[in-house]
Design a protein that fits this description.
Blueprint: H1 3-14, H2 24-36, E1 44-51, H3 52-57, E2 60-63, E3 70-81, E4 87-94, E5 106-110, E6 116-118, E7 133-135, E8 140-148, E9 154-163
Antiparallel strand pairs: 1-9, 2-8, 3-6, 3-7, 3-9, 4-5, 4-8
Length: 164
Amino acid sequence: MGLRFERFLSQLARGILPGITATAGQLNNVGPAFGSVAADRAIKVAIKPLAGATIHAGVDNWQNPEAGSIIIQRVIVDVTTVATAAAKLDIGTTATNATTASDNLIDGIDVNAATGLLGQADGDGTTNSKLQQKLATGKWVTIKEISGDTTGLVGNLYIFYINI
């Protein structure tokens, strides 16, 4: 186990981390789990803030920060404030550049109807979007307004991924 993880377990066992409790038996199960799986292979979640005015002005993006390729397992949009007018978004991966739109993750989600969580099943239902996509290091997930006006939209894009 890594030194930071061992320190975390030590602090957890001594009750130094407020609001987190665990029994000795639970802690004994955590170490072997991480010992058998490389910690960099755990599911990671990137959070990309979404601002409707930025998306309306062009293509917004998130760049893969990892040293190697990743597999995006799913993406979820959390709409906290709806767009002020009817509007739909496409979200997808691209190796071309940060402004090339794609819809291979989510195709046509309505970000004006209601606040809440939106995923692949909430799109237009085309065959473009898939649950998983491979993304090379330094390449992008793009967010593009495909209809209407996303101004006023506030939310977050959650990108669940693993290193490969």
